[in-house]
Amino acid sequence: MDTSSTTQPRRTASGFAVRLFQTIVVVYLLVFSLTWGLTKIFPIDAKTVVNADQRIHLPLAFWISTALLVWTSVLLIQAQGFVQREKQRPFRKRMLGAVCAGALFVSIQSYALWWLLAQQERTAEAVTTGSRAFVFVLAFLHAMHVSVALLFLLYVTLKSLDDRYDHEYYWGVTACGGFWHVLGAAWMAILMVFLIAL
């Protein structure tokens, strides 16, 4: 009995799992390193923390991360168009670009959350009644969802590099793009809440 045909898929699947894990580790190390670098390059002075009765503005990092979120969605729309037309090379480039933009989004968003947390008033009354805590929780929950979306994007990108998608089968690319578009719409709503609450 020939067992080579039954062991090959298992070896391929395990090899893919190892590549996926390695890629996740590398991307998140880069994300955390970039976030740490941003905190060192643009530190927040403790003397600049705003009092609870003063209005604060959203950090520039939120606007930059918003642009990156939109750019990731655009790249995923283009990737889906390329795979539907069986243009594999530009499809893979768009997927890799989306991974880079998504990783940058998570890094810059993490820095913005750090900045927002540093602006929080540390009194019990401000924590329970202030709008800044609400804004921080919304941004943090969104960032956690985007981290999961980044994992999904990494998975789909690695599958695209293994020739998994073509003009007949591209459901993973469509689902991944849809996930990012929903997160983008949610982030726009959260930004509106920020502008009202802060």
Give an overview in words.
By secondary structure, this protein is mainly alpha-helical. It is built from six helices and no strands. The protein has one domain: Up-down Bundle (Four Helix Bundle (Hemerythrin (Met), subunit A)), CATH 1.20.120.80. Helix 1 packs antiparallel against helix 5, helix 2 packs antiparallel against helix 6 and helix 5 packs antiparallel against helix 6. It is globular, with a radius of gyration of 20 Å. The model is unreliable at 1-10 and 46-53 (pLDDT under 50).
Layout of helices and strands:
Layout: H1 4-41, H2 60-84, H3 88-118, H4 124-129, H5 131-161, H6 171-197
Helix pairs in contact: 1-3, 1-5, 2-3, 2-6, 3-5, 5-6
What structural keywords apply?
198 residues, mainly alpha, Four Helix Bundle (Hemerythrin (Met), subunit A), 6 helices
Secondary-structure-derived class: mainly alpha
In total, how many beta strands?
Answer: 0
The CATH architecture can be given as Up-down Bundle
Oligomeric description of these chains: single chain
**CATH level 3 topology:** Four Helix Bundle (Hemerythrin (Met), subunit A)
The CATH class turns out to be Mainly Alpha
Q: For this structure, what is the CATH homologous superfamily?
A: Cytochrome c oxidase, subunit III, four-helix bundle
- Arithmetic mean pLDDT: 78
Outline: globular
Largest sheet properties: none
Low-confidence stretches: 1-10, 46-53
What is the distance, rounded to the nearest whole angstrom, between the alpha carbons of the first and last residues? 70 Å
Please count the helical segments: 6
Helix-strand string: HHHHHH
**Beta-strand share of residues:** under 5%
The percent of residues in helical segments reads over 70%
Task: Write down the Rg.
Answer: 20 Å
As for the number of domains, it is 1
